[in-house]
From TrEMBL:
<feature type="active site" description="Proton donor">
    <location>
        <position position="227"/>
    </location>
</feature>
<feature type="active site" description="Proton acceptor">
    <location>
        <position position="49"/>
    </location>
</feature>
<dbReference type="GO" id="GO:0004553">
    <property type="term" value="F:hydrolase activity, hydrolyzing O-glycosyl compounds"/>
</dbReference>
<keyword id="KW-0378">Hydrolase</keyword>
<dbReference type="InterPro" id="IPR050727">
    <property type="entry name" value="GH43_arabinanases"/>
</dbReference>
<feature type="site" description="Important for catalytic activity, responsible for pKa modulation of the active site Glu and correct orientation of both the proton donor and substrate">
    <location>
        <position position="179"/>
    </location>
</feature>
<dbReference type="InterPro" id="IPR023296">
    <property type="entry name" value="Glyco_hydro_beta-prop_sf"/>
</dbReference>
<dbReference type="InterPro" id="IPR006710">
    <property type="entry name" value="Glyco_hydro_43"/>
</dbReference>
<keyword id="KW-0732">Signal</keyword>
<keyword id="KW-0326">Glycosidase</keyword>
<dbReference type="GO" id="GO:0005975">
    <property type="term" value="P:carbohydrate metabolic process"/>
</dbReference>
<protein>
    <submittedName>
        <fullName>Glycoside hydrolase family 43</fullName>
    </submittedName>
</protein>
<dbReference type="InterPro" id="IPR013320">
    <property type="entry name" value="ConA-like_dom_sf"/>
</dbReference>
<comment type="similarity">
    <text>Belongs to the glycosyl hydrolase 43 family.</text>
</comment>
<dbReference type="Pfam" id="PF04616">
    <property type="entry name" value="Glyco_hydro_43"/>
</dbReference>
<feature type="signal peptide">
    <location>
        <begin position="1"/>
        <end position="28"/>
    </location>
</feature>
<comment type="pathway">
    <text>Glycan metabolism; L-arabinan degradation.</text>
</comment>
Length: 739
């Protein structure tokens, strides 16, 4: 999203989830080339809500939200655009829209947020949030607009009507119609995902040109938890990536990415634990969250695949030491980062669960063993035989067969952009295998052996440019045809081969003229098979723990004692207070005890009946790592409007005032187990606290890391506050420490 500020306790509304600080395995085939985040540093200090596409010229294009690009620039760009040959070194190439360019229905001064760029048919379409329209005097009556262009750099022309118009909210104002993301399904239907915390994420079908809606939108992710939806299809599943928590709380930003999957584009999307993303107790499996290094607020993702077949996630993050442009509490500085997206046991995770990278890492594969862009008319790397092929305007056209002088062997990824301008069939041959687009089908054949054939969508136009990608791993062939290489397959064919792939690559066009571009052959990436391990939980430290069996242990100390909190029946019973710790009020009671030195895990089990669906802001109970009233990390199950979440909130002093944000760590039950894993960074001496939650005390969701300075001594405690209507009592079974 853009840079909304959700003040007061509402800033606590939203969340995160993490992965561990351990380093992930290196990627095979990445060679010596390395990169370091943020990849946008060469042209921008901030580049929020990024998406990346590969253009017809074989180069990569990135688009960001309307903000100033550089410190002190102060003037917002109107969808800044950058270009790269290698996904690492980027160059600013201009804004998508001129200073006075806006659709007729946009109010003067409207900003353009969170662009999404796709190929639909024979042109490119950019979907963009328009923050202010002429529908009303409200300055945030947002809508989704669309603009079309012949190339990724424009010129862009706005459609004459919004794709999704402003939507009045039942509670006043307008629903947050922001953060668009388009998806094309295997049946050829186009969809648009949009929405945010006020209204949730919805999906609507689009017309064939992608410029108008069809039918009625349906909710796929609950309000007050998710925004920034992005859907892709992988191994037959549809994955909804969504960001959660506050995007823009400066040094307390806890934005992160979670995911659910479904068997269709309309859901229902469920997480790894089977919890729906559109429920009051909304699920969400962690994909990306902060890990204690430089980067916090890791969210609003795009997606891409390099030439080796490795998937990557583009996203923005905040340097916790440099969170703003220009001045404190100004524009949040959110550069673009890029990291490996691994698929482990059917679920995506960044760097095998290690989270955002700070140190140099193997770079994406953007050049290949055979890497033909047809920039020269000479076909010195090819053999045409008696067939006629020619290069013009950076594209190859011809009929028959054109064979490369480069042989394939081993596990490979082969791809090409192709159009059937007059051919009956066109495709690729390598070794004994043909993969072709023919007669409305995508077909893979092994000579004298088996074949696989799947239909292309009704309305498929072979004269439009499409990408054909074929991967072979351990004799298993997977061929995908897509409009934009963005997890938006129109067809997927799989075939088990009888022998390894060997021999040259041949381009095929039968019965007429075919057109090819961006032909590549690269060694196939080596997938990560195992996620990095979560923090270990060792023996119980009984001298530091309290089972609440015999009154309150003398080691406890109160900050603002609550006389209604009592110990009986082996539990601490604490009526939830109408108090809070956030901001300057500092009225809440906090029950604390000293923590052991070194690394440890603190755990509690808390029962709190918050019901579902109803608004009970912001009743909560849980663990806290506490230095003082203006520096703490609070992990609690909490009622946030209609939702129930496990929020890992964080407050610290910054520029003379307390700043609060949060991230989300799992889904609470009425009884929820909570953990804080403490680690001292050996290089900096910082205290790192990583959070986890569980609905059964056995299966844990590990989330983000908040840090405390080396010269502080955080204590561990319990809290129960945020509201007293209706009255409810938190029941803590214990506080345990483990080494």
């Amino acid at each position: 999203m853009g840079h909304l500020h959700r003040g007061g306790v509402l800033a606590a509304v939203l969340g995160l989830v993490l992965a561990t600080t351990a380093s992930a395995p290196a990627v095979a085939g990445s060679g010596p080339d390395r990169y370091r985040n943020p990849v946008s540093a060469g042209f921008a200090d901030t580049f929020a809500d990024p998406v990346v596409v590969r253009g017809d010229d074989g180069l990569w294009y990135a688009y960001g939200t309307s903000d100033p690009l550089r410190e002190g620039e102060k003037q917002a760009h109107r969808v800044p655009t950058a270009r790269s040959a290698d996904l690492v070194d980027w160059t600013y190439v201009g804004d998508a829209f001129a200073p006075d360019q806006r659709p007729s229905w946009a109010a003067p001064g409207a900003a353009f947020w969170a662009p999404d760029v796709r190929r639909i048919g024979d042109h490119w379409v950019m979907y963009v949030t328009v923050t202010d329209t002429t529908v009303s005097a409200d300055t945030f009556d947002t809508a989704i607009g669309a603009a079309t262009a012949p190339t990724p750099t424009g010129p862009w022309t706005f459609a004459d009507a919004p794709v999704v118009a402003p939507r009045p909210g039942g509670g006043g104002g307008y629903l947050w119609t922001i953060d668009p993301s388009q998806f094309t399904d295997v049946d050829g239907r186009n969809y648009l995902y949009f929405g945010s915390y006020y209204g949730g994420i919805s999906v609507t079908e689009l017309t064939a040109d992608g410029l108008r809606t069809v039918g009625t939108p349906s909710l796929v992710a609950v309000d007050n938890k998710f925004e920034g939806g992005y859907v892709l299809r992988h191994d037959g599943w549809y994955y909804l990536f969504a960001s959660t928590a506050n995007c823009c709380a400066g040094p307390a930003t806890g934005y992160s990415v979670q995911v659910g999957r479904a068997r269709g584009p309309r859901g229902p999307f469920v997480d790894r634990d089977g919890l729906r993303l559109d429920a009051s107790r909304a699920g969400g499996t962690p994909v990306l969250t902060q890990n204690g290094n430089r980067w916090i607020g890791t969210g609003h993702n795009g997606f891409l695949t390099d030439l080796s077949g490795q998937d990557w996630i583009a996203y923005h993050a905040i340097d916790r030491a440099d969170p703003y442009l220009d001045e404190p509490f100004g524009i949040n500085e959110r550069p673009m980062l890029l990291d490996r997206l691994d698929w482990i046991d059917g679920w995506p995770t960044v760097n095998a669960g290690a989270g955002p990278s700070e140190e140099p890492r193997p770079a994406p594969v953007t050049t290949a063993r055979l890497d033909e862009r047809f920039d020269s008319p000479a076909l010195t790397r090819w053999r045409a035989g008696d067939d006629t092929w020619q290069v013009a305007d950076g594209r190859l056209t011809g009929t028959g067969a054109l064979t490369s002088r480069t042989d394939l062997d081993g596990d490979v990824r082969v791809e090409a952009d192709l159009r059937l301008t007059g051919a009956d069939a066109a495709g690729l041959r390598f070794g004994r295998v043909d993969v072709r687009v023919e007669a409305g089908r995508l077909t893979a054949r092994e000579a004298d052996e088996g074949s696989a054939s799947v239909p292309l969508p009704a309305g498929f136009d072979p004269a439009d440019r499409h990408n054909l990608a074929v991967e072979v791993r351990d004799r298993q062939l997977v061929a995908e045809l897509s409009p934009a290489r963005l997890g938006d397959q129109l067809a997927v064919a799989t075939l088990r081969l009888t022998r390894p792939v060997a021999g040259p690559l041949t381009l095929l066009a039968d019965g007429g003229t075919g057109e090819f571009d961006n032909v590549s052959v690269a060694p196939l990436y080596r997938p990560a098979r195992h996620a990095v391990a979560p923090p270990g939980v060792g023996p119980l430290l009984s001298d530091w723990s309290d089972e609440f069996d015999d009154g309150l242990d003398p080691a406890w100390r109160w900050v603002r004692q609550n006389p209604d909190a009592t110990v009986s029946g082996g539990a601490l019973r604490w009526p939830v207070e109408l108090t809070d710790l956030v901001g300057t009020g500092n009225t809440a009671g906090v029950l604390l005890r000293d923590a052991p030195s070194g690394d440890y895990v603190a755990e509690t089990k808390v029962t709190l009946d918050l019901g579902e669906e109803t608004v009970r802001n912001y009743q909560q109970a849980g663990l806290v790592a506490y230095v003082d009233d203006d520096r703490f990390a609070r992990l609690s199950q909490v009622a946030i409007w209609n939702t129930r979440q496990v929020e890992y909130g964080y407050e610290l002093p910054f520029a003379g005032r307390p700043v609060y944000g949060g991230n989300i760590v799992g889904t609470p039950a009425t009884t929820t187990w909570l953990r804080l894993a403490h680690h001292v960074d050996p290089a900096t001496g910082e205290h790192e606290f990583r959070a986890a939650s569980s609905r059964d005390g056995v299966h844990w969701t590990w989330g983000g890391v908040w840090t405390f300075p080396a010269d502080t001594t955080p204590r561990i405690g319990l809290v129960a506050h945020g509201g007293a209507n209706p009255p409810v009592t938190a029941v803590f079974d214990y506080l345990r420490f483990h080494r």
